[in-house]
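Protocol step 4 of 5: obtain the predicted structure for the target chain.
Materials: sequence only (see below). No template structures provided, no constraints applied. The aim of this step is simply to have a reference model before the mutagenesis design in step 5. Sequence pasted as it appears in the construct record:
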Amino acid sequence: MCRLAMADPKATITKAFEDLQRSLSPEHIHEFASTELKEVWSAVQDIQTSQRKRHCAQTLRRIEPLLRGLEKYAKVIEVLCNDTPYLSFIWAPIKLMIQLASNHRDIFDALLDAYADIGTALPRFDRYEETFKSNPEFQFVLAEVYSTILEFHQRTYKFFQRRAWHLIFLSVWKDFRARFDGILHTLEKHRDFVDREASSIDMVEDRVARSRMLEDIAERQRQTAALLKSNEMMNQLAQFQSSISWLAVDDKKQEAERSRRSGRKHSGTCEWVGQVPEMKAWLQDNNSEPVIWLNGKPGAGKSVMCTVIIDNLDKIESLNVCYYFCDNQDDGRDNPSERVLGVIATQLLRAHPELASLITNEFVSPGLSSSLAQLRTLVPKLLELQPYTRIVIDGIDECSKIGQKSLVNELQSTCLGPKLHSKILMSSRKEPTINSKLDSKPKICLDENGKVEIDIRRYIDHKIQLIQSNFIGELEPDIFTQIASSVADKADGMFLWVRLVTQELEQCFCGRDLEECAKSLPHGLKEAYGRILDRIMDEEVSPHIRSLSVRILEWMSCSYRRLKMHEILDGVSIHPDCTSLESSTKLSRRVFDLCRPLVEDGPCDTVVFVHFSAQEYILKAAYKQGRPFIRPEDAHLNIGHSCVAYLNTSFRLLPQNSTEEERIEWIFKGLHGLQTYSNQYWYSHIVGYMDQVVAQKLEVPEYLLWSLKEIIKYDKTELTEDSTQSTGIANTSYSNTRDRFASLGRFPGLHSLVSNVEKFRDSLKRQDWTIKQIGVVSLETCASDPSWFSTACHYYQVALEVLLDPDFSKYPTQELQSFRDIYRDSAFTCRYLHCNRATDGFDSLQQREKHESKHQRVYRCDITTCMDFKKGFATRSQLGKHAKTYHPRLLGETTLADAVRADKKQRAMPPPLALAANLAANGKTQPPLPQQNPAPPTPFQTNKASPKKKTELKDSKVKRATKKGDAGATPSAFDFQGGMDFANPDYSMDVLKDFDFDSFLPELGGNVDDFNFESSAFLDTRSTD
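Step 4 output (structure tokens):
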């Protein structure tokens, strides 16, 4: 006997019922068990009546075949469902689904269409009622139909039970379509089996064939289910990756920041924050107190407190937590809202990958950009789909004044609302801009907070115990107790201050030094910073070490983006006495210890200031003689010279000056790690310095003049004039307020080079490179650059990527791995030079390719003869706008061709009928009164062609129509005299496809690049001729 003949139909039904029951709530299980089919009919009628009252009735007859089919099905399956609650679960879910969906037109339509498809696919139970009741093979079909219908109910029920299901239903339904088609296919297979085999049910010789057929159906069903499951998983992964790529934010940096700041927490501290009444109210799942402000002075521990709050939120089941640590060196810090909202969306997506369906179907597939405008729509949707969300934003005061205001406003307008069930905690100093926005909100203030003082004392005792362990038997315990008390008295609620002074105490190696250091503790953070700088500038420290320390702080505080450690080291290694980088002159990472504890290791192989206030202090606070420790003119001079001196050595990267093997060798030795930053920002630092030269009438040092003279060799025009022949005090008479490089005016060659490079880079932002392959873009960029900078950078990038290729193995494995560990992060820069990621790239080739795909215009007009076909569009929305403007036929709207057809048809009518048609087309019932004076011409008419021009135009059209045939060929589809030959099948397509706008518009005084006139104006023009 065949395998499937032994299957128990009742077991199949029982399993399907239990699977559905596990998905249902207890309330719905009870409701479904008592629902009769007539109640479903009644619910359909009630919905129909309600919709008619609202004047929004939808065709509910679509569901009738399903209900009729289930009614017949119930009569034949009773034999398998006796003494069980199984039968009502076939139709009961339908009542719930249509009631939930009835207020959402598109969703209701999708659901009715699905039910209609199922009704069509059901076997014809009434024809073979007796057969179904008695034959085991056909009872197996009954059980399979039951299982298939309940599978559909189970999946649909899950959709409707999601929070804010109406926001995501259509997106998820699109992805469900493949699974639904599989369900329909299964039903259709069983229907066809019944229709074919029922007539031969009593023929013994056909039973084996029927069994084999059923086995084949079941086996194919299993294979299809496995394939669908695999495809769904692949589709979900693809959607997730596509959504992450579309959001285009690096949320991993936020994870690294969280980990770094969390590491500063001392055990047992900050735990009290969860017991604060304001925090308890903020944690409650309601709409009261949606914003709370955590504030305090610099160094009070706000960032650490935020990490503690985030950690505690992570422990709450069903709660989503999003967070962002602001950084003053973030790109685009004047408008941080887009970055913050992008990270929030990404974090929600990573926590709930199923949200990728919504993002892909509603934002990625339509070709929308991940701009602030789209994030304002997306983020509220994502939050509404979550039951419970808390958002923590730290360091808002590190944004610019404009950024502070925009971020606070954006967070409250986008992330808060009665349906979103989300709340926000913002952390910052009491900046005036922030205070004006948040002063009325519930606050947790860390200043003069007794619990903070207790935590600080616990931290101090721990640090002093560590110091005491270094002096066991040398000093009395009372001395350390006094030191701890002294530190606590002066801490003033600042963990950071305690950290700095205890690190200073740790540097004492004898009892006397320790006691003296403890007696002269600094007051406040500024004095603590000043003391660290005093130690750096101590006269007992060699001038070379002092210079290294100052240059490190200059590079960290005045660079135009956050730098990697190797970039700072290479930049500091170059100075007036060492203008080229060699293996023997490269600095060790230990050199950063000279500036500790003012700096510390940051995320992603960077080095950062211990606190934002430290950078503020060295740039703005009066250090000595009323001037800051780092002066802008000195920093720009030193950084600018290092960049220029380096670029003078990178001239050898050009292909005419070296081989690929040589370039790979130099880069492997780490001699060109400053290439990307120097190439992009060298002249920004030079101009920053020269502006100060002009303003303060400073003298330009000879070593900079020499380096600037050398940099002119990058100019492809090969100017022969001496670009730096002027020395000494700047000529302040040179002034051009419109030239931001005016301070370079006394150096004509340099001014020309910088101006040309700047113009070229600006042109890249306006030029459309996206219609070309990226390889062509790179080469054409190098060719069109008036300097050699792009070429040198290109060959540097090529050699670097060779070294990062896992298949490259020319050098020892350990050395290669060390090189890759240093340079891989952000190495794969975007090859569209106008992009922000062209200087700070990605970790892998795959990440870069996903990013670069956004620059490409892959969306083409469907009309191949359209003037914009080759150009293409970057997004679907741009293509849709183009189609709506120029080819509305594609969108089901009236086209120019339709208007011409209507006009010709009207002119062919007898006069009375033509008049009636014209009135009907214009929504009138009475003819207009005779005009006493002719109406003024329309703008299009005033520019119409002269008779001679019209004759030439007509002749040109006829020539084009006959060009591909004989002299007697049919005239052009668009002929002013002959009209359109609609009888010819060749002209049945949209006239816009065949019409030559390029020649038509200039002859009529139109604009080829702005074809957007009204068809009615054109028809009026024709009627007057």
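Step 4 remarks: The radius of gyration is 38 Å. The first helix runs from residue 9 to 23.
Proceed to step 5.
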